[in-house]
Amino acid sequence: MVTSESRRNNLEHEGVIDGQVAQQRILVVEDELRIARVVSAYLQRDGYLVLQATDGRKALELARSEVPDLIVLDLMLPEISGWEVCRDLRQNSRTARIPIIMATARDEVADRIVGLELGADDYVVKPYDAKELVARVHAVLRRVNEARQPPDSTQLKPVLQRSDLLIDRNRYEVRRAGELIPLTRTEFEILDFLATEPGRVFRRLQLLDAIQGEAFEGYERSIDSHVKNLRRKIERDPRHPEYIQTVIGVGYKFAD
């Protein structure tokens, strides 16, 4: 008789669990041991290999040495705060593209905006349900895995040229006049989505739906933070953007 546990073990051996690549590594950065244990148990149950850090310094060491597939990052940490950890990771070429889900007890909108501006890909507020967090991990990693799939003849062209911007979907790279511009995955996906249809206006929820796979109304304004970061990197003058333009009261478009 094949039990669910033995079937899961077989899937692990084959390299697939619930549609996810087996043994993808998740770094859980959390100083509250009870929360860390619960989150780790849920992630391990779904086939992930979990690394743990209880302070910011250890988190940076593990992120640099192990380069996990995703980081669940608490903000209120000893040694080095989660804010500083996120900033450091995004400035390091080795860790700049690791997806980050921030988790914190602070529910102020300003805190969420700062976290997203630092480069977080998603955000959960304590107390959160561990199942919801795992669902968000699935969603973020699914986006990453889909982005890594090589395009076939039915998909979009692997390289998109818009003025002096070159968007390379295979390499997940953007160049302006030949110069490489480092973007987070979320920033890249927003740019790629908008640039695919220049002149078309997209609402914030449409953008969220496109880059996350489902639209979360409570996170609608997070798009503004990502666009602000994106403009700061690709625009010559972010105050007068030539690529990504705001349509007041509606959303954003790529200049036609």
Structure description:
- Mean pLDDT is 81; it is low at 1-22 and 150-154.
- The chain has helices at residues 4-14, 33-45, 56-66, 82-91, 109-117, 130-148, 185-196, 204-212, 222-234, and strands at residues 16-17, 20-21, 25-29, 49-53, 70-74, 100-104, 122-125, 159-162, 165-168, 173-176, 179-181, 202-203, 244-247, 251-254.
- The protein has nine helices and 14 strands.
- It is an alpha/beta fold and 256 residues long.
- The chain has two domains: 4-148, Rossmann fold (3-Layer(aba) Sandwich); 159-254, Arc Repressor Mutant, subunit A, CATH 1.10.10.10.
- It has a five-stranded parallel beta sheet, with helices on both faces.
Report helical residue fraction: 40-55%
Please give the count of helices.
9
Order of helices and strands: HEEEHEHEHEHEHEEEEHEHHEE
CATH superfamily of the largest domain: Response regulator
CATH class designation of the largest domain? Alpha Beta
Please provide the count of β strands: 14
Oligomeric form: single chain
How many structural domains are formed by the residues?
Answer: 2
- Give the overall form: globular
Strand order of the largest sheet: 4-3-5-6-7
Task: Return the structural class.
Answer: alpha/beta
How would you summarize what this structure contains?
With 256 residues, the protein is an alpha/beta fold. It contains 9 helices and 14 strands. The chain has a 5-stranded parallel sheet, with helices on both faces.
